[in-house]
Design a protein that fits this description.
alpha/beta; two-stranded parallel sheet; 21 helices; 51% helix
Length: 452
């Protein structure tokens, strides 16, 4: 076994940058002349919200900012703490301000987990300047942070780290003899480095956790040699470390909505490759397959409709097939449905028609059914005119009658306007011919002697 010095803190924590110049990624915020660098140079930090995925540097940036302006830094976890702890922090901040004129930066990790009342507890102290609040969240602040608190903070968007950023972080950890793994003289194969960078999925912390495990496996497998070849982290060792890649996905959060939006738009834009990819991504992230089936059933009516009436049946069959088989066998039924829906002709005529109807209902209220369309099962109802003047379609040529089926206030309104795509083209042609026939009959009834 190797004679490594025991480390009590994880590698990811030890390698956390202490200066902005050592920070990797987020160049749109920390690059020369960019916002955070200007804040540090100016020496004043406003209240901020860092919005970004795990491992993108939210906590690290907060600590760098606090250190750069010599502020009293308080780490606060929304998972573990509540209003009682906020009061204690406020009291301590007053002492810091009165005794040392030192500002307090309160970093709230996972601030989206606080409810409205808890978030409101920050407001007076942020507004008075006693606390500079830096919140970190993986969720969309528009939905998860109250409007009053959000209006007092500037939201900064952090992106997942790029693979080249992850590679830089890994190389730095391997070379650093104090906080990193430099004392062991470890090397890493190019294939292993690529695997680690890809498996991290933009998460710096995850990359360093993987690296630390792979390094331990490598060093435990053979003692560090007295001379000769340095211990090398192989691609096979990295594969063993990874086991199964965990994708960045939250079935109830921002990433859920991002991916389902990408799936829906790929289907609508008739791109089977994009549709299949995003559906598979959601499955791999742990999304409920029946949710995906329900979304495709909705899509079949909303974006395809009668352009391909079979699409709805395909989506329903997909749901039933998955319900019968489960995963992984039923996953292919979902993929099949996605490919079919993406390649089907598209029409939103039903969706737009329904929207017009709802708007008219909202505008006109409960308009009564015209008397000629009402059923008249009793003599009294017939006496009041129920059903009077109704024309039974099958008693007329082509089963077509000149008869209004909407309330008088909406007479003549067209709600369903089929497109020229797919089967709807047949429907459109049919409706056009029927309208022409009825128009000719109407003219004939008005002028019976006309040749028509």
């Amino acid at each position: 076994m190797s004679t490594r010095t025991p480390r009590h803190s994880p590698l990811a924590e030890r390698m956390r940058p202490k200066r902005l110049d050592d920070f990797v990624g987020q160049q749109h915020l920390v690059g020369e002349g960019k916002f955070l660098r200007q804040l540090i140079e100016g020496g004043t930090i406003p209240s901020l919200v860092f919005w970004g995925p795990p491992g993108s540097g939210k906590t690290t940036l907060a600590t760098i900012l606090a250190r750069a302006v010599s502020a009293h830094f308080v780490f606060f976890s929304a998972v573990l703490s509540g209003v009682k702890e906020i009061r204690q922090i406020v009291d301590q901040a007053k002492i810091q301000r009165d005794q040392s004129v030192q500002p307090t930066i309160l970093f709230v990790d996972e601030i989206h987990r606080f409810n409205k009342g808890q978030q409101d507890a920050f407001l007076p102290h942020v507004e008075s300047g006693l606390l500079t609040l830096i919140g970190a969240t993986t969720e969309n602040p528009s939905f998860e942070i109250t409007a009053p608190l959000l209006s007092r903070c500037q939201v900064l968007l952090l992106a997942p780290l790029q693979p080249e950023d992850i590679v830089q972080v890994i190389r730095r950890a391997l070379a650093d003899p104090i906080d990193g793994l430099g004392e062991y003289g470890l090397l890493i194969e190019a294939g292993g480095l690529s695997l680690l960078a890809e498996a991290a999925d933009g998460d710096c912390r995850r990359a360093l956790n993987y690296l630390e495990t792979a390094a331990n496996l490598t060093l435990d497998a053979r003692p560090a040699p007295e001379g000769g070849e340095a211990p090398t982290i192989t691609a096979a060792c990295v594969s063993e470390t990874l086991q199964q890649k965990t994708l960045r996905y939250d079935a109830n959060g921002e990433e859920h909505y991002n991916l389902i939006s990408a799936l829906h738009k790929s289907l609508r834009d008739s791109d089977p490759d994009g549709a299949m990819y995003w559906l598979a991504r959601m499955l791999a992230g742990g999304e409920d397959p029946m949710y995906l089936a329900r979304r495709m059933i909705r899509f079949a009516s909303e974006d395809i409709g009668n352009a391909d009436p079979q699409a709805l049946q395909v989506a329903l069959n997909c749901r039933d097939a998955y319900h019968m088989l489960g995963s992984p066998e039923g996953d292919l039924a979902l993929i099949q449905a996605a490919a079919y829906l993406a390649t089907a002709p598209k029409s939103n005529a039903l969706y737009t028609g329904f929207a017009k109807i709802r708007a008219d209902i909202q505008r006109t209220g409960s308009l009564p059914v015209p008397l000629h369309l009402r059923n008249a099962p009793t003599a009294l109802m017939k006496e009041f005119g129920y059903g009077r003047g109704y024309q039974y379609a099958h008693d007329h040529r082509d089963a077509l009658v000149i008869q209004e089926h909407l309330p008088p206030e909406l007479a003549g309104t067209a709600y369903y306007e089929p497109t020229n795509r797919g089967y709807e083209a047949v429907i459109k042609d049919r409706l056009t011919k029927w309208k022409q026939i009825l128009k000719q009959r109407a003219r004939h009834h008005a002028h019976p002697k006309d040749p028509d």
